[in-house]
Each structure stands twice: as C-alpha cells, then as structure tokens.
Design brief:
Structural class: alpha/beta
Number of strands: 5
Length: about 200
C-alpha cells in the first residue's frame, strides 16, 4: 500500500505488485487507477499497436502478467514510452518478473529496473480486519469470539478468508442460523482436514 501511495514519486516508472490470487493486487490496482486516471489492460491482451493509446493519460495498469501469449515486444515498448513521457505503469502478477521466462534481453533489463512490491500472507491483525470486512460487505455482524476462533484456525491467506466467509454465509442462510462462535466451529469442522480440530 505504501508503494502504491508513493505515486507519482515512484523511484522507477514501473511498479510490479506480486502476490497470490486473492492477495489484494486488484484492489490496490483499482485504487491506483482511480488516482492516476490509468488505462487498464490484461497482460494477455497487450499489443504493440495499442501502446500509444494506452499511455494517452500517462498511466497504465497491466494486470495478470505475464499471461498467455505475453507480447514481450509490446511490454518493452510500453515501458519505453512511459520512460520517455514520464508516465507510470503498474503491473500485477502472481510471480516475480525474474520467473516470467522473458526471452527479450531488453525487456529483461527494463523489468530488472522496475520497483517490486510483494504482498505476503496476512498477519493476525490484517486477517481479523479482512474477515470483519468480508462479513460487513455481506451486511453481517459477527462477534469477536467467532472472529478470533477463525483467525486461530484458518489457513492464512486472503483467498481462504473470502472462501470461509462465503461458506459461513451460505450455511447460515440455509440453516437460518445466527453466526456465533459455535456455528462457525461447526462450519469449519465440516470443511476441515480430519485432525485439524482434535484439541478443541
């Protein structure tokens, strides 16, 4: 978030956000696109012929790089245009650029010069906040005991938080039940590995 917020004072014209699926890359990208009035393109759809038009506002977001059929020449030209025009590019990816198997030496050089920000797994505080927000987005209030139970026992990832909240919500609707700590425990036990709750 700090790296995104630092725009337009980035140390490089290119910022690459790296994180697993559901880690919040798209959310940060949306925030930046609004602030920078950026055009958005999927990496798999990036074409050389569209580079000039994409950079028209001076800011471009390229999502899910490298993607299928990654056009290395188009990416190279986009980065060069950003450098020449003092533009900015935000790229999202699930992997570091050094692992993209880029063949074009000039593009490899440009990517090495880019700033990279990595989104790691959430800590307890962030996971707790994410769960509260996920429930709130569904107009659900869940007490602290239920949230604490989830934080201590769930997989530590953004995607796991989204999935768990969706399962709890669906089960609560089906059972017409209130979402309490005991209800959450039953849902998690029904979806857990056999030995995960042995000590509960």
């Amino acid at each position: 978030m700090a790296a995104v917020d630092a725009w337009p004072e980035w140390p490089s014209p290119v910022l690459i956000l790296v994180g697993t699926a559901g880690s919040g890359k798209s959310h940060l990208c949306d925030v930046w696109c609004t602030r920078a009035d950026a055009r958005v393109v999927a990496a798999s759809a990036l074409e050389t012929s569209a580079v000039a038009d994409l950079m028209r506002t001076g800011a471009v977001a390229v999502e899910d790089a490298p993607g299928d059929g990654f056009d290395e020449v188009a990416m190279f030209h986009l980065i060069n245009l950003a450098r020449e025009t003092s533009g900015s590019i935000l790229i999202t990816s699930e992997d570091y650029p050094s692992r993209w198997n880029v063949a074009l030496p000039d593009l490899v050089s440009r990517l090495k010069a880019a700033q990279v920000a990595s989104l790691g797994d959430p800590d307890d505080e962030l996971l707790r906040g994410l769960l509260v927000k996920q429930f709130a987005d569904r107009q659900l209030h869940v007490d602290e005991a239920a949230i604490s139970y989830m934080v201590l026992r769930m997989e530590r990832s953004f995607e796991a938080a989204r999935s768990l909240v969706a399962k709890i919500d669906a089960r609560a609707l089906a059972d017409r039940a209130e979402i309490t700590r005991n209800f959450v425990a039953r849902v998690m036990q029904d979806n857990a590995e056999p030995d995960m709750f042995e000590d509960d």
